[in-house]
Specification:
- There is one protein chain.
- The protein has 114 residues and is mainly α.
- The chain has 5 helices and no strands.
- It folds into 2 domains: 62 residues, Arc Repressor Mutant, subunit A (Orthogonal Bundle); 40 residues.
- Helix 2 runs antiparallel to helix 3 and helix 2 crosses helix 4.
Length: 114
Amino acid sequence: MTFEEFNLAVSKTRLKPHTIAVARAVLVEGLGLTQAGNAATPHMQRQQVADAVARIEREHRKIIGAPQGWRCITLTLPYQGEEWDAAEELQSRAFERAGLKLPNVELTGRGPES
């Protein structure tokens, strides 16, 4: 999850700053649940970290229109290349197979053009 996506999802919650920092370590920085909990001051149990992460992921899925039970992934691809087109097509087919309308959320470029 990008820092911007994380901040938007967090803004929809009432989590405390300490909990937000631990969830950011997992979702944005890539730390494991236990590692993030142990690094927190005061320490947080793995399950507490998992609960915070799940809360933020739930808000993120609502924001982007992902159905219940679906997961979000972050891909780093050449902007507007063959791989980019394939990723957009994969997302479109998944929504179509599920009988859902693709939300009006585009994959975002993070290159020189954006």
